Amino acid sequence: MTATEAVAARAVPDWRGGFGRLWTAAVVSRFGDSLRTAALPLLAASLTDDPLLIASVTACGFLPWLLFGLLGGAVADRVDQRRAMWAADLVRAALMAAFAVAVALGHATIALLLVLAFALTTLQTLFDNAATALLPALVPTEALAAANARLMTGQQFAGGLLAAPLVPALLLAGDAVPYAADAATYALAALLIASLRTGGPERPPRPAGSTLRKEMAEGLATLRRDRPLRWLCTATTLCNIGMGALIATLVVHVTDGLHEGNTAYAATITAYAVGGVAGGFLARRLAERTGRIRAVALAGTVQTGCLVVMGAVPVLAVSIAAMAVFGFMGTVWNVNQTTLMQERAPEGMLGRIAAAFRTLAVAGAPLGALLGGAAAAGWGPHTPALLAAALFALAVASLAPLIN
Q1: I need a surface site. Which of 3, 9, 95, 389 has the fewest CB within 10 A?
Q2: CB of 304 within 8 A of CB of 399?
Q3: How far apart are alpha carbons 82 and 130 in whole angstroms?
Q4: pLDDT in tens, 145-200
């Protein structure tokens, strides 16, 4: 590891001003999202007993990345990222409020769940790319790793430790309550982001005749030419196929495979979040010792083992422990992946590179969700975890050109 990387690993962002507000907005929004994410599969399972249909809700939530991901990145590099983010959150708040009303009135259907998942993720393609591009304007380059770690740790804490355990209690208060709460957090996050006064990142002038299509192609070409980002994108895509299979069928694994109820499902999600929070505290230190790519490879190796244990040993306590370690290493992977992307992106292209990376990586999640649903339906509720383990092993193997 170079001296520059070591300094970057130890630097910390200033909480005052823009970063503090962005952090608060991200944490508040994740709290609401986690309420919805935990409640939605339970709602889907109450509407149908078909594992493939339940998994389709998750798959539909990833599909917009394939259709609009590159466009979202190109737009994020053109517009005021702050305005794009708060506008997207206001629309998402309205959609969630309307859905909460539909649930309260008993009008929820699988078709409505599919439409909601698609619409929310379509807006997310713009929001996430704009947020990634905005962060380097709020903190110095040497503090990016710490800023990403704190963002992800805060989100995991609010989403997993605070939100997920509340879902069973909120559902007792009313089926629509988690979705109404999500709508409120979107509105609050929009207000926080709109209050930012920090200017966006510097952008070089666009060449004459430049179009969104050309700019999207530039993002893909730049990602392809950058060897570390190219192989890291390949590995992340394989992991996301596995994650799609696992997350889409986790409720089936717990309720059908382990014969447990909603509380056990919430405990499994909470364990993942606990591990994720711990991983956020140690992600930078691990990278300082090993380098970013080796830290990612180590994380993927441990995650593979967790998935094997989870699929092979159908015991609730084992699944909870495996998900905790899995979440720990997931944060290590994500912090170092995002920081490496921000460090290596040319000026004015971070939104497009992030979009190209995410679009290619997320492309595997809908496929994984459908594969997981088919595997659970055909070979039992524990097989998606084993399928995910095989894909994570391939992901780690694909990083070998960067390590040797």
Answers
A1: 3
A2: no
A3: 8
A4: 888 888 888 887 887 677 767 877 888 888 889 899 999 999 999 999 988 876 55
SS3 track for 168-185: HHHHHHCCCHHHHHHHHH
In 3D space, the residue among 167, 137, 185, 216 whose CA is nearest the CA of residue 42 turns out to be: 167
